[in-house]
Amino acid sequence: MENNREITAHIYTHPIYRNFIENLPYNAKLKARSRALRKAGVLSEVIFWLQVHKGMFWKIDFDRQRIIGNFIVDFYIKTLGLVVEIDGSSHNDKEEYDQKREDYLISLGLKVYRISDLRVKNDLRNVMMELEKYIVLEYGGKETSI
């Protein structure tokens, strides 16, 4: 452990340190909507999910369509406090809403990583490598680089 921080995973030889954010707000009224979004299966989200579910991505646990406050995020890594958003056409003309949402998530101590829908569909290998690099840089300690 570095500075008594818990290692939650390794990406290649890089330790990834836990950044769990406790007591996140939860709006139970969004539970049915969250479930419906999971079942709807937006193609880019399904493609991404197949890469990360059941610990397939470096044994890191991802939640899909997770409720945080009054928002539903595409993916959430609770051990890292990391939201992963896949931006597709549903985000068009919603820049102000998306910024308000992102500011709220950041105010809770979370980090937000955005991926374009088209890149997931057309450049998945590089998308996953870039996510690895981001996690190593943000959660891998001071001297870590990939």
TrEMBL record:
Coiled coil spans: none
CDD domains xrefs: Endonuclease_DUF559
InterPro entries per the UniProt record, alphabetical: DUF559, Endonuclease_DUF559_bact, Restrct_endonuc-II-like
Domain of life assignment: Bacteria
UniProt-recorded name of the protein: DUF559 domain-containing protein
Gene3D superfamilies: VSR Endonuclease
Pfam families hit by this protein: DUF559
Organism listed in the record: Flavobacterium caseinilyticum
Ranges for domain DUF559: 29-133
